[in-house]
TrEMBL record, chain A:
Gene assigned in the entry: Dvir\GJ22758
Main location: cytoplasm
Stored CDD domains: KH-I_Rrp40, S1_Rrp40
Keyword RNA-binding appears in the UniProt entry: yes
This protein's name: Exosome complex component RRP40
GO MF, any single term: RNA binding
Domain Exosome complex exonuclease Rrp40 N-terminal span(s) in chain numbering: 26-63
Organism per entry: Drosophila virilis (Fruit fly)
Family in the record: Belongs to the RRP40 family.
Keywords, sorted A to Z: Cytoplasm, Exosome, Nucleus, RNA-binding, rRNA processing
Automatic annotation (TrEMBL), chain B:
Family: Belongs to the RNase PH family.
Protein's recorded name: Exosome complex component RRP45
Chain residue ranges for the region called Disordered: 330-423
Subcellular location: Cytoplasm; Nucleus
Gene behind the chain: Dvir\GJ11305
Single Gene Ontology BP annotation: nuclear mRNA surveillance
Length: 232, 423
């Protein structure tokens, strides 16, 4: 669609969306907002559209705003009573209860220390309350959630995190062809990777970091370069 | 690199630290450098005298020197003052905990004070206008714009380059009246230096005996201890700051010290060269780089690798020369030891370090002390020949200069003696 290329600024009236809204019901995603009969942008970036009726602004952002259900990576900062305080890159520290781990009871507490990495899901996200995390699903099973051991951890923009998680994104698939690795991507713009050797992990992390500035077309090239770098 | 991009300080989680420890063991670094490899240092001079932006990799520091006329302290009535001010509040992503922030700030500030003030690198007496009444107060403001490790080196290089770049107006003191000449009336004066110190930072890890030089923020945060050594261009130790918990071999520290000494020399040479180029540029009209140019890198940058690469060939020759000179100089200094003995306590820092020098280094350290003494009693003009060449010369000068004043020296303070020689 042609709307893909239009850049909008905060406060701008977005008439394209208003026009679309005349004929059908539409959904306003992040960065768009209805003010009376007008649609106004609240963030800067290209306007995106997904068929049939969703619109949003794909703005470049590094500060995470928690949303319920997000999978994120956090760093344990401290323990406070029966909670752990976790830094998830949001305005507030998040909290996670001792009991929010698989098979945890009052007696059998998880052993977490400051500095540990946690892959968790956001349970509660509200502007006025600090976010709350869990490391189990509704059945009480941990699944892939929990503490991340070893590997390397780094930070990127929220956009890169989302890009990697997109089903259509070729990056992770292309990297798989180069070497075996484990990866955890948090939508709060934090990525944890682990490969067999230090060298491979360094190469992998650097490859992912360069994707930050790359366009869609360059992804394959960057991923392909990795094997060359590894051998060098 | 986007390592520090997300309002977030790297090296705060266990996996990162363990990873770096493991990587150090295998002699790999995240940015592909060798353990003894430095990042490129870039200098940019601003339109004003004494404005310098320094970048080491992603670390960026802006230094600005200013001066005005004030009253001296009663203890040192005939000396100007040097004030160093560091501001790291501009780096938003650093750990916001107040305690960490204060600690970082205090360490950096005290390191700079020891490197520039305690080592007496500026000739403060030349900044005196009227004893006990008015002196020049030189102020260095260091603004940290981005922190990707090795803030120490970046700030010392910035401070030194800014001080060397700085020009103060000339004043006259006639009949209790101070008259400041504007730039048009009389040419501005550079500050006088006794020596030129810069620091070199090493990170030591428990997992490896090989220290990493010029650490990034990630490496710095994962390190068990950080060693900062300040050397001047004559390879004399000015500051040693060793903190942390890693048990460090004396031999390791010595090895660091040796490479730091040669690195410092190269850095000072680089700054001199950059200053020369800047002076040339200032001759041409319409070459003013404003603050904005300075920050968005549209101003001409002077890169260490680039400038020193040209020098590479002459450097090797010089190194040969230098190694040939050393033994000769050693003899000289040994014979002179008694005469300079009394004044050695003047530079306490190298002496305190004496115990940590290895026995085999005894002669060398003595030589350095002697050099230090000689250095401070000798007038240094910033435009002297390169350090490597001047070293043997200084040895000769010393012979001539030293003999007459030694008898008086016993009961006179060193600083007074300096005045008599300089004025």
């Amino acid at each position: 669609m042609s709307t893909n290329t239009s850049i909008i600024m905060p406060g701008e009236r977005v008439t394209i969306v208003e026009d679309a809204a005349k004929s059908k019901r539409i959904i306003l995603g992040p960065g768009l907002r209805r003010v009376d009969e007008k649609v106004v942008a609240t963030k800067a970036g290209p306007l995106r559209h997904k068929e049939p009726n969703t619109f949003w602004v794909d703005n470049y952002q590094r500060r995470y705003v928690p949303a319920r259900g997000d999978l994120i990576i956090g760093i344990v900062k401290a323990r406070a009573g029966d909670l752990y305080r976790v830094d998830i890159g949001a305005a507030d520290l998040a909290s996670i209860s001792y009991l929010a781990f698989e098979a945890a009871t009052k007696k059998n507490r998880p052993d977490l220390n400051p500095g540990d990495l946690l892959y968790a899901r956001v349970l509660n996200a509200n502007a006025d309350i600090e976010p709350e995390l869990v490391c189990v699903n509704s059945n009480g099973k941990r699944g892939k959630l929990g503490v991340l051991q070893d590997g390397f951890f780094f930070k990127c923009s929220l956009n890169l995190g989302r890009l990697l998680l997109r089903e259509s994104c070729p990056a992770l698939a292309a990297l798989t062809e180069e070497l075996p690795y484990e990866i955890a991507v948090g939508v709060n713009g934090r990525i944890w990777v682990k490969a067999h050797s230090t060298r491979e992990t360094v190469g992998l992390a650097n490859a992912i970091m360069t994707l930050e500035q790359a366009g869609y077309a360059e992804i394959e090239k960057i991923c392909g370069n990795l094997s060359g770098v590894m051998q060098a | 690199m986007f390592m520090n991009a997300n309002l977030f300080e790297p090296g705060k989680s266990k996996p990162e630290r363990n990873f770096i420890q493991g990587a150090v063991k295998q002699n790999t670094r995240f940015d592909g450098r060798k353990s003894n490899e430095f990042r490129d240092v870039k200098l940019t001079f601003g339109a004003d005298w004494g404005t310098v932006a320094v970048s080491i990799g992603e670390t960026k520091v802006l230094a600005q020197v200013s001066c005005d006329i004030g009253t001296p302290s009663s203890a040192r009535a005939n000396e100007g003052t040097l004030f160093l001010n560091v501001d790291i509040k501009g780096v938003a992503f650093l750990d916001e905990a107040q305690a960490t922030h204060d600690q970082r700030f205090l360490t950096l500030n005290s390191l700079l004070e020891r490197t520039f003030k305690s080592s007496r690198c500026l000739d403060l007496e030349s900044l005196c206008i009227a004893v006990e009444q008015s002196v020049w107060c030189v102020r260095v403001d260091i603004n940290v714009l981005n922190h990707d490790g090795n803030l120490y080196d970046a700030s010392t290089i910035a401070a030194l380059a800014a001080l060397m770049h700085f020009r103060r107006p000339e004043v006259s003191y006639v009949e209790e009246e101070i008259r400041t000449f504007s730039e048009r009336e009389r040419e501005l004066l550079p500050l006088l230096f006794l020596h030129y110190p810069v620091s070199v930072t090493y990170c030591v890890y428990k997992s490896s005996s090989q220290p990493l030089v010029d650490p990034t923020l990630l490496e710095e945060n994962a390190a068990d201890s950080v060693i900062v050594l300040s050397f001047n261009s004559y390879q004399e130790l000015c500051t040693l700051n060793a903190g942390g918990t890693a048990p460090t071999n004396v031999r390791t520290i010595m090895q660091c010290a040796r490479s730091a000494a040669s690195r410092s020399k190269a850095l000072v040479q680089f700054i001199r060269k950059a200053l020369e180029l800047d002076a040339e540029r200032r001759q041409q009209p319409n070459q003013v780089a404003g603050l904005v140019d300075l920050l968005n890198e549209s101003a001409p940058q002077l890169s260490f690798k680039h400038l020193m690469a040209e020098q590479g060939q002459t450097e090797t020759n010089k190194a040969d020369q230098l190694s040939g000179d050393e033994p000769m100089q050693l003899q000289e200094t040994v014979s002179e030891e008694q005469t300079t003995d009394t004044s050695t306590q003047k530079i306490p820092e190298p002496q305190m370090d004496d115990s940590s020098w290895l026995p085999q280094e005894q002669n060398l350290s003595e030589e350095q002390q002697v050099d230090g003494v000689q250095l401070s009693s000798k007038q240094e003009v910033p435009t002297t020949a390169k350090a490597g060449k001047s070293k043997p010369n200084r040895g000769k000068n010393k012979f001539v200069k030293k003999q007459p004043p030694t008898p008086r020296k016993q009961n006179q303070s060193d600083s007074e003696e300096e005045v008599t020689q300089i004025i």
